[in-house]
Amino acid sequence: MSGPRRPTDPSGLERYYVLTGGRSGPGGSSSSLDVATLITSRAAAVPGLQHEHEEILRRCRDPLSVAELGAHLGLPFNILAVLLADLLDAGRVEARHPIPASGAGRGPDLALLEEVLSGLERL
Amino acid sequence: MDLKGFDHPDRYSADGTLPAGARSVKVMIAGGFGTGKTTMVRSVSDIKPLTTEETLTQASADVDNLIGVADKQETTVSLDFGKIGINDQLVLYLFGTPGQERFWFLWNGLFKGALGAVVLVDTRRLASSFRAIEEMERQNVPFVIALNVFPDSKDHPVEEIRDALDISPHTPVVACDARDRASSRDVLIALIRHLKERSAVALESR
């Protein structure tokens, strides 16, 4: 079929609607995702996956932040969060959240701050 | 996007990727419009800064009127970000907050999980950063004030600025040139030292 194709806006909300099946965050696994969360694939892409899911698995063979993933795929955070939640729920990716300055109940983490400081001093 | 070509390949593996098990921390760069947030992210980042977005209209809204939804597409908030390899297991992400502070609350958890923030201030227009300071205080995000020195900035005594900004005497105020990598790095160092002091005080008072 080589007839004229309806022009589509690749960055339009219609595309996002289709990508996510109309779902939107936050909720479930996507609600805890941060822009600095590191995503790592746990499984190789298998046939039959949605193209964007496959693309995420491919790009996250090594850990990659949600922000970088969004920038590379051209997807806004909330849409990406929905796609990532699918992969998290299916156990296909692993998410490591940014280390907060103080962990719940653990108090401020001086060792972490020391580590960051010495890294910056080497810049 | 080519992720190779880091300035400091020793802090990443040869191709710029993070090893399995790597962890991240994040620092926010806040401040009023035009105070140099993106400039600072750009100068200190190991990678060419990228932009990630959040759409403020949820895609599920008004599903039976997609044309109407598409009309709201322009309400997109952008975050410029960069990263710094701290060591081979730890990476620091820097996020420049959107220029329009009124959008901050719409980005769920933007400041949650951040180690702290740098609030950039242009001393020629102090008031442009008031909102950012208020927001840090409201969200309980520890911060340092970085006075971005522009060529025609006047030399104000720090105490005068501290007074005008109405900030705690414990909040560090440092001068910087956001265009300069070493200067921006020094601001981050001032922030981490401040966090360490806060931690030490918190530990003592237990």
Q: What key attributes describe this structure?
A:
heterodimer, A: 123 residues, alpha+beta, Arc Repressor Mutant, subunit A, three-stranded antiparallel sheet, two-stranded antiparallel ribbon, 5 helices, 11% strand, elongated, B: 206 residues, alpha/beta, seven-stranded mixed sheet, globular, DUF742 (chain A), DUF742 domain-containing protein (chain A)
Q: Could you walk me through the main structural features you see in this protein, from its secondary elements to its overall organization?
A:
The complex is a heterodimer of chains A (123) and B (206). With 123 residues, chain A is of the alpha+beta class. Chain A has a single domain (14-121), classed as Arc Repressor Mutant, subunit A (Orthogonal Bundle). Chain A contains 5 helices and 5 strands. Chain A has a 3-stranded antiparallel sheet with strand order 2-1-3. In chain A, strands 4-5 form a two-stranded antiparallel sheet. In chain A, a hairpin with a 3-residue loop joins strand 4 (102-103) and strand 5. The longest helix of chain B has 24 residues, at 181-204. Chain B is built from 5 helices and 7 strands. In chain B, strand 6, helix 4 and strand 7 form a beta-alpha-beta unit. In chain B, helix 1 packs across helix 5. Helices cover 27% and strands 25% of the residues of chain B. Chain B has a 7-stranded mixed sheet. Chain B is an alpha/beta fold and 206 residues long. The interface between A and B is large, with 55 and 69 residues. Chain A: Residues 1-32 are annotated as: Disordered. Chain A: InterPro entries: DUF742. Chain A: This is DUF742 domain-containing protein.
Summarize the structure.
The complex is a heterodimer of chains A (123) and B (206). With 123 residues, chain A is an alpha+beta fold. Chain A is built from five helices and five strands; from the N terminus they run H-E-H-E-H-H-E-E-E-H.
